[in-house]
Amino acid sequence: MGIRFVLLVNKQGQTRLAQYYAEHLTLDERRALEGEIVRKCLARTEQQCSFVEHRNYKIVYRRYASLFFLVGVDNDEQMEYTYCGSFTHGRSKQFSSVIAYVAMGAVVDVIAYVNELAILEFIHLFVETMDRHFGNVCELDIMFHLEKAHFMLEEMVMNGCIVETSKSNILAPIQLMEKAS
Amino acid sequence: MEQLKTIGRELAMGSQGGAWAGQSKEFLDLVKSIGEARSKAEEDRIILREIESLRRRIAEPDVPRRRMKDYIIRLVYAEMLGHDASFGYIHAVKMTHDDSLPLKRTGYLAVTLFLNDDHDLIILIINTIQKDLRSDNYLVVCAALTAACKLINEETIPAVLPQVVDLLAHPKETVRKKAVMTLHRFYQRSPASVSHLISNFRKRLCDSDPGVMGATLCPLFDLITEDVNSYKDLVASFASILKQVAERKLPKTYDYHQMPAPFIQIKLLKILALLGSGDKQASGQVYNVLSDLFRKCETSSNIGNAVLYECICCVSSIYPNVKLMDAAIEATSKFLKSDSHNLKYMGIDALGRLIKINPDIAEEHQLAVIDCLEDPDDTLKRKTFELLYKMTKSSNVEVIVERMIDYLISIDDNHYKADIASRCVELAEQFAPSNQWFIQTMNKVFEHAGDLVNSRVAHNLMRLIAEGFGEDDEGADSQLRSSAVDSYLRILGEPKLPSLFLQVICWVLGEYGTADGKYTAAYIIGKLCDVTEAHLCNDTVKAYAISAIMKICAFEIAAGRKVEMLPECQSFLDELSASHSTDLQQRAYELQALLCLDSQAAGNVMPLDASCEDVEIDKDLSFLINFVQQSIEKGANPYLPESERLGMSGVSNFSSPYQQEASSHSLRFEAYELPKPSSIPVIPQPFISTSTTDLVLVPDTTYYRENNQASKLIVGPEASSADAGIKLRLDGVQKKWGKPTYSSSSSITTSVEKTTNGVVAHQDGIRSHSRDTTYDSRRQQPEVSVEKQRLAASLFGASASKTEKKATMAQKAPKGNSTNAEKSSVVRSVSPGTSKDKTAPPPDLLDFGEPVPTSAPTIDPFKELEGLIEPASALGPLYNTVKTGGDKAQDLMALHMDTPPSVSRTSLSLASEGTYSTDKSSYTEKPMIAVKKGPNLQDALHKDATARQVGVTPTGNNPNLFRDLLG
């Protein structure tokens, strides 16, 4: 699960929306992180995977016109394989160690794995939701209605978990608010 | 979306102006100018200007509320673009008080974006949140809950907790959902403060609203991760919910791309994977739903594949089921065959999960895997390496590690380099087919990622070369050593080598450079001197080099040959003697002292190839009794225990010199007291009874010498106890966590081993045919290159023939095959499973705390263990006083339980500090003591000094040296 941040950044590397979960980075850290990630993603071609590893994050990204939607999740790649520090060479010991590893690995993997495809589709759901609200959503819509884009995200993600995926449920409070004002 | 693509960056402001009515002209201008900024610098200028104007205007009295909202959003922009807007935080906090919902919510939003949850201003918002949680307007309550999720910290949880709990029963489903998530957040922040409320999550799972139920899965997932067993009763509920979701019982609005509530399905599958892991009964309740899902999942859409991938993960986690495994394998192969890189990536990941249950699956997909490995896409490549890492065995380790090293060379991200390097090392250590190969592989890893590798790896390598492979084949060991020496001499020609690698090289050259007689001492010494010149090296490398030179000299002297000082060696020595590092200085002087020794003494100081032998420490220093008594008879001062000395002077050790100076008003000629030792010295029996006399009043001329003796007496046990304390403990740890792992775990899995051995033998038999088979499969897929085939064959070994069989026998063969595989997989998966149940696997396997030497099957592993530990306990006859008698297993236990008085010389793992702890010198018999340095600098200094006092130091050369050290 664990979404760590949602970023909207355009081709020029300008941030259009940033929301971090469960961690508060300083301004400088954020700037550095966003810059590095965008550079990494920009360097990739359309055919390559939509997933990039960066430090302790795995970033799932999707590009819409000039805008990159990036979602950072916990990286399970950093498998907690314990380096035993011993050199077991005897060939007879191989199997035991492999099996010990498998037993351990199974536990680790089950606890922390990301469904990258699902995150990718989550991004699309977010875009679809904005599209339904703004109608033909574009970068400018998000810029002019930054707070609304945030409100939608707030409805969809809490504590880094995806909590709402029904577009009408996401938009209902925002529409009510608009009517009221 | 399409629209996004068409609009791009064109800012047709004039025509669209009306669309953003209600916002100020200034805001529109700001957004417009940010949007048009062509560079980061331009953007920064705009924002800085904006901040200046906001700073002025936001503080004006009576800013209209709507205008304030405008300002706040502009502040959000400033922060988002990386500029500090802290001056406006308080205004955002104020805005949360506003009555108007949009303003309030904007205020909350700004506060959550601006403030960390331990910020000082948080306290000002608590009251507002409390008030808003009581509001009649559910949207206000929602806004407050959202803010509470991000702002409430551990200390403030109690302030809002009761209200949040009440809201769990709110009539509005959105409120219930947010309350659940807020409680989840509280649980994440501080599990203890909400532990009594956990049952609420269970209740909310049965909520009538699917949104609330879906949200509740998030906290439940966390809870189940922590404690699987308490939630086993929910397996049936989760399974039935999943079934209902899959059967489209949820409202249409949850559909996404024709999939019914896919995100909820995914969460449920994750939970079921946890609950079913290693639990046959729980897994049984999931099989039906899973097979339904496999049937229903649409593979044409991304989201369908996402659910499918989740199903595969679930299948690989729960208790294996033949039918589901088949379905998972089929889905995986579809992923792998897809053109989309994303799907290939998921496929590789899925394959990595499935081969844990049945390693044979990989064979079918060998070509797809190799395609991914050679793909230019780095993400995919790395994922594939992860898969290869998981499927490495002794038959393919060479190919895989070679590939990994190639990749290691090709990348320059240090993070990944370190990761790949440590994996290479691990695989090489586990599966190395030959010693030669192992050394070469390690050389490559060190060469290309040297400074990123854990220093433990280097010490393991040294130890490996020193101890050999544990087989009683001295010939093979010495062959290994000379091949290592050869390769190192060759590598030294390289222009730039990492310092860790240089340390290894120096050490090995010192120990074994001249061992096989192939190279002369002068040659090796020359090379070692070159090392320090050619490579810009740090003190640690220099220390290794000089010690290596010292060893070679000692070996030469011991063998009765004359050592000629090479000019470069002499200059190196001179350089070190004047070094700022006392450590290097000492080594240099030690070497000089050693050169003056006769052959027997040199041989005793540095015995040949004795790095693995233990230093025996006689804590009572019984061999000194005669010497002491003689000295006392000659009028020397008897030793005073430290406590008595302290009691007399009544001051602490450190201040005593000054104190005495003040009281006696005379010059002190003797060295200052040694720094207080960390461990209490063991006091030799004979001295305790002797009478006490004042140390200071001894006549100057004799005092110096006697002080030496006294300190020698002190230092002996001190050094030994400190050494025993530090080294032994570490040594014990390493053994505890190191070698026994494998041997003890093998005791549990011996039965498995047999079967797998059978399999392996079988595969080996087939492998001879692999050539033909590669041709066959080539006929089927003519476009696949020969090289890939070869790579595949080497990676997957016997596999090729099997895939061919499968291909020709069409449908039947795979089924039979997979059932077989299934059977074997059951055997395999049972053992980890049971071991997991009985004993949380890795830690318990390692745990030597509970001695179980009596149980029958453990006899074997202990024998193995013994073989491993032998070098530690098999001491040279000279040192061996602790006899290993009686029950061997018992003895082993003793080795682990309490720290034996013998210190392993090869405590290489200690050297992390950069100090060198593998000198060869003996504490015992010889009055000549070359003291080695512990990891502690002070200790080292301390010992240094005493060593010199005792006599190793060429005092004639530089008598003042150690005084400086002491001062």
TrEMBL record, chain A:
TM region(s), chain numbering: none
Location relative to the cell: Endomembrane system
GO cellular component, one term: endomembrane system
UniProt xrefs under InterPro entries: AP_complex_ssu, AP_mu_sigma_su, Longin-like_dom_sf
Source organism, top-level taxon: Eukaryota
Any one GO biological process: intracellular protein transport
Entry's family note: Belongs to the adaptor complexes small subunit family.
The protein, known as: AP complex subunit sigma
Species this chain originates from: Zingiber officinale (Ginger)
Organism lineage string: Eukaryota, Viridiplantae, Streptophyta, Embryophyta, Tracheophyta
